[in-house]
Fold:
Amino acid sequence: MSTHRAIVEAGPAAIRRLCCGTNILADDEAPEIVRAALDAVDDRVALVGERPVAVDVLWETALRSAICPHTDGIVVLHPSWWSPSRVAVLTAAAATVAGQTQARPRSWLLMRASRAPRDATVVVEIAERLVAITASDVTAVPRNAQPPSVAEAVAGVIAATAPAAVVIDTPGTVAGASALAPLIADAVRGIGLKIPEILEINDIRLVRLARHVPPVRKVPTRPAATAPARSVRWRARTLSGLGAAAVVVAVAAPAAMTIGRPGGVAPRHVEASPTTFLVEGRVALSVPANWPAQRIVTGPGSARVQVTSPADPEVALHITQSPVAGETLSGTAERLKRAIDAEPAGLFVDFDPTGTSVGRPAVTYREVRASHHVRWTVLLDGPVRISVGCQSRPGNEGAVRDACERAVRSAHAIG
Structure:
């Protein structure tokens, strides 16, 4: 049996119904709920009006306000770069409020605008902090440079795929998307490939696509339904606890791009060993693809994301960040030195206030624990202080060296 279900957009910056008559934005009825649901999708609890609310309840409330009163299930569209854990939160909430549920990446709907075969179509999704390019994999370009530089970086990624069509998603709820989309289209036209179709899809055209989706088969909701229909090389990261969201996007060789300080974009080939692009709050960096990540909020040290080698639990990367508008590297060094001096002697050694790491100016020092040492590199990128800790067993720094250098070299602020 087939049925036409409501299609609901969930992210990157809105929750709304795209079909079944007049499209309804949940934002119009409960803007605070919607913002909190989107911002806290990686967390378990969020603050709404200074009150703690379970995130699954937030999502249920937001989705309930967007669906048809008498719906027979829904299809929920999520950003193609969302991790499986995010999609699982979304799907569970949708199933609670609407019963029959299917989760699909936005690229699934956007590709319907193209006359080219699906495997020859590239979809570009503009979000607040990044631009995601979906081909056989998902590649992310951070939006921390000037728009023309971001557009050139996106075009460079697309050039490596040699597509027959490019579809550019331009959500009206994403700041700067309407200005960035034509820049990307022009940059793609300038890369020297003859691409027959370059389409910009605004909110009106997205709604039209949704209303022409054919009926879908009625199938029971089950965990497998939470996986994206397209094959996307995600590395699942389950991050527990509260705090900034962390997202991991696969970096596709050979065209992955890394954006440094605003105003410049430097292309970089992905190293031989697989890496993923970790976005933690306002920081992005490359980490090994097969190293699982978790949020550490207890024990010694600051709250952080820890990415651990599956071959040795004492080999890991630690990532922390702090907003430090107006701080200089010398000011960072003074602050760290005072904190280190307050700790027991011998715990932090080799402090260098004017050090370098893979050619980047940094404050460096070493943390000495019984079972491992952590070599810390503290960087400033604009208003963000980034700390990367490279952990290994005593006398075995080589085990983490390659991963450490990639992480430090690629670490940068994205917003």
User: Anything to note?
Assistant: The CA atoms of residues 152 and 163 lie 16 Å apart. The mean pLDDT is 79.
